[in-house]
Design a protein that fits this description.
Strand order of the largest sheet of chain A: 1-3-2
Oligomer: homodimer
Helix content of chain A: 55-70%
CATH class of chain A: Mainly Alpha
CATH architecture of chain A: Orthogonal Bundle
CATH topology of chain A: Arc Repressor Mutant, subunit A
Distance between the termini of chain A: 31 Å
Number of helices of chain A: 6
DNA sequence: ACCATGTGCTTCAAATTTGAACCACACTGC
DNA sequence: GCAGTGTGGTTCAAATTTGAAGCACATGGT
């Protein structure tokens, strides 16, 4: 199979910036969230998804897919969060194997406490450094990338 | 400290797509690299940086910064890679505390073997799904984000 | 009803990551 | 010279992630 198509300068820089931005931003978010609310980013995302869902509950598998983690990874996190009282498990009536993760009042409160600070970080380092048109173009580009990766 | 400035639709979608694209792409890369070359993404990046450096060697701290990992994280990886013969350590003449990570021939060969496959994944899921103008805008936008995060 | 196969979640051990010590040395100013 | 502070790397234990099994049940076809 033939020659490798290397990246040109723009492409190279884009790829590098994509990796760097992702890593640094994640780092900041992780720090901020842990310091200010005692949550990891995954846990925060779990709370977000649950609070947005009907009745504040979701099946484990769906939640795992939503927060982009593995099944076993989610099992671990939900166990932690259950110990912390942010979430509880409820078994599914229709399917005995099924499990719902349910947001508790404490969980919802924690999310509400954490959201503003989290938002500030996302704004400060991502959204607010971009112009409206950059936001639009990047939104479309990234959606395309997600599509290419089979993210629905 | 007043009200929280929430994200509008475009911003929300951008942020979500950014997270999703990053996570999914990383997953693909990790799989592909491990399957085809027995490397993790971090290890691949280490090889890339070393091969690009003068004499194929870099100080541990600089390398850690380059590949966006922590000092202890790099120590661990370099130890693994040293066992695999991809890299070796050399102590620094000027500063007794200093350590260089040095690329071995085997390491360079491994990188050369891995690069084409890796490139293909990056192209297939990121670069080639974007138009030239999207690449330019996203490059600039992401560089701005990196700057905002203090990535030099 | 029954078997074969698939699903949903958990469990397990191994690999990796994290962050806080820690050690040995470099450097600065006194 | 030398105390005080900073740096470069490593070490350590704890937390998390990963992927392969495993388990118990659901489902479709016969």
């Amino acid at each position: 199979m033939g020659d490798t198509k290397w990246l040109n300068d723009d492409e190279m820089v884009l790829w590098q910036a994509f990796l760097t931005a992702g890593a640094l931003l994640d780092r900041r978010i992780e720090e901020q969230l842990k310091a200010e609310s005692g949550l990891s980013h995954v846990q925060y995302e779990v709370l977000v998804r649950l609070s947005a869902a009907e009745g504040g509950e979701l099946r484990m598998s769906e939640l795992a897919a939503d927060v982009l983690t593995t099944k076993s990874g989610l099992t671990y996190q939900i166990t932690q969060m259950e110990k912390a009282g942010l979430v509880r498990r409820r078994s599914c009536a229709a399917d005995v194997r099924g499990v719902y993760a349910v947001l508790t009042d404490k969980g919802r409160a924690r999310l509400e406490g954490a959201a503003p600070g989290h938002l500030r970080v996302v704004r400060a380092h991502l959204i607010d450094v971009l112009s409206d048109s950059q936001v639009r173009v990047m939104r479309e580009g990234l959606q395309e990338v997600v599509r290419a990766l089979g993210g629905e």
